[in-house]
Write a structure and sequence with these properties.
With 84 residues, this protein is mainly alpha-helical. The chain is built from three helices and no strands. Helix 1 packs across helix 3 and helix 2 packs across helix 3.
Length: 84
């Protein structure tokens, strides 16, 4: 349906925006979140990680933080210990 197609397009655009913020703010210090050797993280775990990064001066708005948390969770989806 048209509505479903618009939602999918919007989600892709949000994903692209989140990845751009991730590239700008995170990849300077971190290579990737796709390390298969690391245990998976829940959405709550990603909240904690992003909050710790704020302590190191990450400087994200609440909206950008939420986008990055969603992006990181989605990138690792299926690898998580439990649903987040």
């Amino acid at each position: 349906s048209v509505v479903a197609a618009e939602k999918a397009k919007s989600k892709r655009m949000d994903h692209m925006k989140a990845f751009q913020v991730y590239q700008q703010k995170c990849l300077g210090c971190h290579d990737s979140v796709a390390n298969p050797e690391l245990p998976g993280r829940t959405r709550d775990d990603w909240h904690l990680v992003v909050n710790v990064m704020h302590g190191y001066g990450l400087g994200l708005s609440t909206e950008d933080s939420e986008m990055i948390i969603d992006l990181l969770y989605q990138l690792r989806k299926g690898l998580e210990r439990e649903a987040g």
